[in-house]
Amino acid sequence: MNDSEVTRDKVEQTFSDIGKKTKREDLFILFVAGHGITYSKDGSFYYLPVDFRYSQDEDIPKLGISMNDFKKYLAKIQATNHFCFWIPAIVALLPRLLPAEVSLKRLPLTSLHEL
Question: What integer pLDDT is reported at residue 33 of this predicted model?
Answer without folding.
Answer: 86
